[in-house]
Amino acid sequence: MPSPDETPFFHVALNLPHAGRIARRIFRALPAPDVGESSATGDARQAAWDLVELLDPCLDLDENPDGRTAILLREGAATLGRQLVDHIEAAGLGHDRLGQAVRNLFECLELGREGARLSLRAGEDPQSFQRPV
Question: Which pTM does this prediction carry?
Fold first, then answer.
């Protein structure tokens, strides 16, 4: 496995409206609540929902919000995304499509290298043709 500085990644410009669409996709990819579900499953769903709510105002925009607002949204979304991956991993919820969505989210936050690493923890197949090489 490459070192963190050598991890291949896609460089994508900041795109908060698309990050909001991906957040919704992630939320839908998580299992529905079930009686007796593990707290990690509930924590993953809550983190995903918090991400949706944070980015939801961006969905109606054609562009990112201005300056400082965009930076704050990006940092908040990245923090929630990291927490989400921790919960996905703890609950054993990861799968290839979910991992790909996590990678896409971080790419839209201009954090492609980090997303390429986190996506593996969220279940992306390391041999996926979708992964950067």
Answer: 0.90
